[in-house]
Amino acid sequence: MGRASKREEIAQAAFQQFHAQGFNATGINDITKAAGVPKGSFYNHFSSKEESALEALNRYAATMRFEVLTATDRPPLDRLRAHFEFLSRDTVENGFVRGCLVGNLGAEVADHSEEIRAAVKDGFDRWAALIGQVLAEAQEAGDLDGGLDVRATALFVVSAWEGTLIAARADKSAAPVDAFFRTVFDVVLR
User: Fold this and answer.
1) DSSP reduced 3-state for 11
2) Other C-beta atoms within 10 Å of 23: how many?
3) What gap in Å lies between CA 81 and CA 94, rounded to an integer?
4) Can you tell me the distance from the alpha carbon of 21 to that of 38, in angstroms, rounded to the nearest whole number?
5) Residues spanned by CATH 1.10.357.10 within the chain?
6) Other CB atoms within 10 A of residue 58 CB
7) CB atoms within 10 A of CB 145
8) pLDDT tens digit string along 88-118?
9) Whose CA is closest to 124, among 78, 182, 61?
10) CATH architecture assigned to 64-188
11) Which CATH class is domain 7-57?
């Protein structure tokens, strides 16, 4: 009988290491040590560190609770707020140390890896599209100014959130998060 695959353990360890330490500070030895497997096991499942980072991005997307945005159980802007409240709780509860893996890899690796750059862009584009759909629903419900450009506003909201995470990490406080909520929900989307 053959040995059991260790792909899941390696992929999960890579996700956790990249999110906690960043791409450049994470070596394959770090990943395999965290997974509890020999270094050679990594290359049985991933051809490179970049390939494992792409898998980490997929895993990260699954943690972002996008289903909150697409549910129809409450008004659109309430769903948008709930989505960002979830993300902000994760940021605060983790002591302002991890930020968004998509943004982190975008800032750290996008200039050096076309595959990661494309995956980061795709992640941001899909997220902004979901937010744009929520904003369009809010317009249709009469809860948002009909003249608001939902695509541009969705891109702004994603960009504002990414900047918020950087500022919260630098400040080690929730003040930037509070400013995000006040500005986005009480001014821009009022």
Assistant:
1) helix
2) 21
3) 20
4) 21
5) 64-188
6) 12
7) 12
8) 998 899 889 888 999 999 999 989 999 999 9
9) 61
10) Orthogonal Bundle (1.10)
11) mainly alpha
